[in-house]
Structures are given as structure tokens and as C-alpha cells.
Amino acid sequence: MLDRIRAIRQQKGMTLADVAAACSPPTTAQTIGRLETGARTLSLDWMNRIAAALGVEAGSLLRAEAASPARMVASHGPTGLRPLTVPHDVLPHSEIDPLAHWVVLGIEVAAGDYRAGDQIWMRHLDAAALIAATSHLINREALVPLPGGRVSFGRIVSISKDEERSLVTLLPSLARRPPLRIEDPEWIALAETLVRAL
């Protein structure tokens, strides 16, 4: 439920301060943040106040609405890794985490630890989420966009950032290649689940 509150707030483009000011009576951004993270107990009264501030029914904070299906966005085949020109739905609805934006990499030809027919389910993170989650990304496998509409899949070796740019170093997992340095990726899809057909 806490993730649901954050998801609705972000979907509406509201900050913690916006929600706090829209509450009746108004409260602080810190209080809304504590309610979102579970650091403070979310009572029925608070749930109704937050729902009103977000302009939604209180019940919508308890259930996922119209979760987007997981999308197959890339495939590893005989010619290597390639993005799909037309991504397609993998499942009509994901019960793994209905609030997540899932993308899927399909493995057509065995490579490294992966077998033909495997699907690698990944959580899509935009640039803002990428910066916030930096410490949790090291040594995780991820799909990262490259210039020219290409993508690369591999283990994240390092992430560095300053005021002007971020730099991701990726060690490719599906081909023997030297580490890639990717400047300011728009997104990263972080590998979370391997689906293997038996």
C-alpha cells in the first residue's frame, strides 16, 4: 500500500510538499514522507486525508489499478543482442509486483549463464530513480540503452556522477567484450527475475 501511495503521487507529478499542502488540515512534507515509507503508522484517517489530497478514492490506495503488462523490449539471438522495433506484451498482468514497470529480455540463443528460451524480467528505472538507487545497482545485471537505438546487457561495475553527468560502467554478460562506459543513460532496466521454461 505504501508503494501505491508513492506511485499515485508520482504519477500525478506531486511532491511530498504538494500532498502535505493539499491535506486538510495541511501537514508537513516530512509527515507525508514518513507515512509513505512506513516510518509512521498509516491510520484510516490519514489514508482518507492523503486520498483526498491526491484526488483519488481511498480504496485506490489499497489496490493496483490497470497495471501495465510486462513488455519484451530486447532479444538475444544468433546475431547478438538487439532491441525489438515493436515491443510486445509478455503477460497480460504481472503478479510479481503490479506497480513496477517491467521490461523483459528474451534469450533465443544460449549465452553465458542463460539458456535458449529464458526470459530475464527487469524493473525499469528512469534517470531520476537511477540516481536515487545508485548504491543498490553495483554488481547487478541490467539492460542499458546505447547511442543509435542499441542496448547492452551486463553487470554494472560502477556508477559515478557529478553535477553535469552520470557514467555507468557495464561488463557485458552475453558476449565477451571489454567493459562499456555509458554516459547519462536515460534509463536502466534492472534484472530481478529469471523465467526459465522447463
Describe this structure in words.
The chain is of the alpha+beta class. 24% of the residues lie in helices and 34% in strands. It is built from 6 helices and 9 strands, in the order H-H-H-H-E-E-E-E-H-H-E-E-E-E-E. It has helices spanning 2-11, 16-22, 29-37, 44-54, 127-132, 134-137; strands at residues 71-77, 80-89, 102-107, 119-126, 141-145, 151-161, 166-172, 180-183, 187-195. The protein has a 9-stranded mixed beta sheet with strand order 2-1-3-4-9-5-6-7-8. Strand 1 and strand 2 form a beta hairpin. Helix 2 crosses helix 4. The longest helix has 11 residues, at 44-54. The two termini are 34 Å apart.
Q: How many strand segments?
A: 9
Distance between the termini: 34 Å
Strand order of the largest sheet: 2-1-3-4-9-5-6-7-8
Query: In terms of structural class, how would the helical and strand content be classed?
Result: alpha+beta
Instruction: Based on Cα principal axes, name the global outline.
Output: elongated
Tell me the helix content: 10-25%
Stretches with pLDDT under 50, minimum 5 residues: 92-96
Write the H/E string, N to C. Answer: HHHHEEEEHHEEEEE
Radius of gyration: 19 Å
- Number of helix segments? 6
Largest sheet report: 9 strands, mixed
Task: Tell me the β content.
Answer: 25-35%
Mean pLDDT comes to: 80
